Amino acid sequence: xxxxxRCGAQTGDLPAVCAACGYAAYxxxxxxxxxIIVRDGRFLAMKRAREPRAGFWDLPGGFCDGFEHPADAxxxxxxxxLGVTVELGEFAGMFVGTYEFQGERLPVLDCFWLATITxxxxxxxxxxxxxxTWLPLSDPPEMAFSTMDRVLRGSIIRNSSxxxxx
Length: 166
Hints:
seven-stranded mixed β-sheet; NUDIX_hydrolase_CS; mainly beta; Nucleoside Triphosphate Pyrophosphohydrolase; two-stranded antiparallel sheet; elongated; hydrolase; 166 residues; single chain; NUDIX domain-containing protein; NUDIX_hydrolase-like_dom_sf
């Protein structure tokens, strides 16, 4: 059962308009920002250390904070998860997907950018990932989320000239 965030009256599933106060509540996708670091026909991936989808290959990225732009979230997430500074390149795509959280299936709006590492040594945050490797763009494995599968199979990624700066 859901309750109105304004007056606390009982409501139905979203979208819903509260019969008591008229407040309209919607189930909007949560935006994310993700980087795709490409080098020599490979992309940098990490194995997820936590649910959802622990043990699956993942790209560095995550949810936007408050009013944070997805591009800024992508840069922040790369710093938090890999310990590096990245420069965003070409926008690679935006896809609607799902994310399982606290027993709910939530809509997400996943935004992807090609990126280049400009500073720092890669140091994987163990809370985020258990393994880090370069995987082939020509035959990527199943990723943690379907939006990642879709962007990695797209023409922008396969034709990318982005290179890792050492």
